[in-house]
Structures are given as structure tokens and as C-alpha cells.
């Protein structure tokens, strides 16, 4: 089981003193990453971040989003990350994304959970519910 799976944080969202997430466990034992009550809340947090990327920072492509999520200057292989998410989601790196496109965003988040936490048996219904909770 990966760290993201143990923490119910499929996209490995880092802890911050400025943010208290819905569904975040009161006792946080992981010093770097948020621990959630369930994957539903971990996915919801990921969608809230993506909502900010798209609506506030105007990042409208998979490439732009992943360069912000996992920048190369943090030691990430961002090019490989983009290629894997694109392949698994069916979304082209330069395809324009809007917040209201639930189908595309759910596919992207599922693919990112694979990259971040090696999750392959994702309950898509939970991810869809998380998207709706994030709206």
C-alpha cells in the first residue's frame, strides 16, 4: 500500500498550516501529506485545488495543470507525468479544459491518482461524488 493510499490522499496533497480540509483527520501523523477520513475527501480536496487552478489561475490544459501540480524544479518528471495522465485519461496535453467538464476532470484525477499513488482499482463513483462535493 502506498503512502497516498494509507492517507486516503490519492493525489498526495501536501500539508499546510493555512488549509484545513473537509474530511481531514484531526490527528495528522504524516509530517508532509494530509491524511483524510476516506478517499472521497482526498479526491474532493484534489478537485478543490483543480478548481482553483482552472478558475483563479486560468490553467486550462492538462499540461499547464500538471506543470503547476508537479513542477520539474521539485524533482518531478513532469513530462512523463503529463504523458501518463494523457494516455490514461484520453485527454490531450493541450486540450482546453473547463471546470464544468466533469467527465474530463474525473478521468484526469483518476489518472493522476495512478501516477501519485499507483491506484488502479479506483471506484469512479466515489471520484464523481467528490467532484460534486467540490462544486
Q: If you had to describe this structure to a student in words, what would you say it looks like?
A:
The chain is mainly α and 135 residues long. 50% of the residues lie in helices and 0% in strands. The protein is built from six helices and no strands. Helix 4 crosses helix 5 (102-117).
Q: In short, what is this structure?
A:
This protein is 50% helix and 0% strand. The chain is mainly alpha-helical and 135 residues long.
**Termini separation:** 30 Å
What is the share of helical residues?
40-55%
Order of helices and strands: HHHHHH
Our Rg estimate from Cα atoms comes to 14 Å
Q: Major sheet, described briefly?
A: none
What is the oligomeric state here? Answer: single chain
Q: What are the salient characteristics of this protein?
A:
globular, 135 residues, 0% strand, mainly alpha
List the helices and strands and how they pair.
Blueprint: H1 3-6, H2 39-55, H3 62-69, H4 78-89, H5 102-117, H6 124-134
Helix pairs in contact: 2-6, 3-4, 4-5, 5-6
Amino acid at each position: 500500500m502506498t503512502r497516498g493510499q494509507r492517507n486516503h490522499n490519492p493525489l498526495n496533497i501536501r500539508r499546510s498550516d493555512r488549509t484545513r480540509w473537509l474530511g481531514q483527520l484531526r490527528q495528522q501523523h504524516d509530517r508532509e501529506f494530509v491524511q483524510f477520513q476516506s478517499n472521497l475527501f482526498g479526491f474532493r480536496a484534489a478537485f478543490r485545488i483543480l478548481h482553483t487552478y482552472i478558475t483563479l489561475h486560468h490553467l486550462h490544459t492538462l499540461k499547464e495543470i500538471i506543470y503547476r501540480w508537479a513542477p520539474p524544479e521539485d524533482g518531478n518528471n513532469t513530462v512523463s507525468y503529463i504523458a501518463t495522465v494523457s494516455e490514461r485519461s484520453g485527454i490531450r496535453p493541450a486540450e482546453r479544459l473547463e471546470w464544468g467538464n466533469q467527465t474530463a476532470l474525473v478521468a484526469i484525477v483518476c489518472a493522476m491518482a495512478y501516477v501519485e499513488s499507483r491506484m488502479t482499482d479506483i471506484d469512479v463513483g466515489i471520484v464523481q461524488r467528490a467532484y460534486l462535493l467540490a462544486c
